[in-house]
From TrEMBL:
It catalyses: L-aspartate 4-semialdehyde + pyruvate = (2S,4S)-4-hydroxy-2,3,4,5-tetrahydrodipicolinate + H2O + H(+). Pfam families: DHDPS. It comes from the Bacteria. HAMAP family: DapA (MF_00418). InterPro entries: Aldolase_TIM, DapA, DapA-like. Its EC number is 4.3.3.7. It comes from Pedobacter frigoris. This is 4-hydroxy-tetrahydrodipicolinate synthase.
Amino acid sequence: MNKFHGTGVALVTPFKTDGSVDFDGLKNLINYLIDGKVEYLVSLGTTGEASTLNKDEKKKIWEFTAEINNGRLPLIAGIGGNDTASVSQSVKDFEANGYSAILSASPYYVKPTQEGIYQHYKSISEASSLPIFLYNVPGRTGSNVSPETTCRLAHDFKNIIATKEASGNFDQFNQIMRDKPEDFLLISGDDPVAMPMISLGAVGVISVVGNALPKQLSDMIRLCLSGDFAKALPLHLSLIEFTRLIFAEGNPAGVKAALKHFGVCDDHLRLPLVKVSPALREAIIAESKKIS
């Protein structure tokens, strides 16, 4: 099986009470996920609160993650932004030791045209020594990477090997599956639709839920990939309410509340993100107890 088939987890970044990075908590999380049998890890994606971290903090987190992982799982680094020149330079300067690929979200806020998105990823592709995962998340970026642009990039640049699709648009997924190169990977960027996406040909998920419930989620994904959807369905259904709750007041506040309950790391965030409300925390803990 390809090393990027299955469950990837977009790691949260644990923080201490004073807002500094909690490296002990990050170590606990990495080991917790490896013990939970996920297939790969994504460092400093959206769930990792990368937008609140400075350049030095990011470098230390990437290095520490690679050190603790120690080759046990493939690692992907999240490097994105809305300034193409800056992102491309960051990709070029990235010290790839221990990492297998880069995940880069489509530019946010500026709402580029499809040609602008294509040229943005062209620049990143030409700067990178590692394979590239596209990341389409219109709910955060304010613009969609069309199926035509996704497949154009996939055909034109051999180091663009996958897309993390979080558009929620099944017509878009269908078009990508029909028109992509055979070896190009479609990966779910939304936990709730990972199962039906796999039925269309997606090869797995890059998950938020997997931070807290790595075994339950990765067991379900592996069943889907083996074609045993009948056995996977009860597991999928058992995760629906937990998934709804952890996103109810934003990501990653909800999943950090669950991680605190499981004793993996604390639930501090950096502003403008804040902890979940007491009522939601209680609901997440109650649902966690039903599943774990």
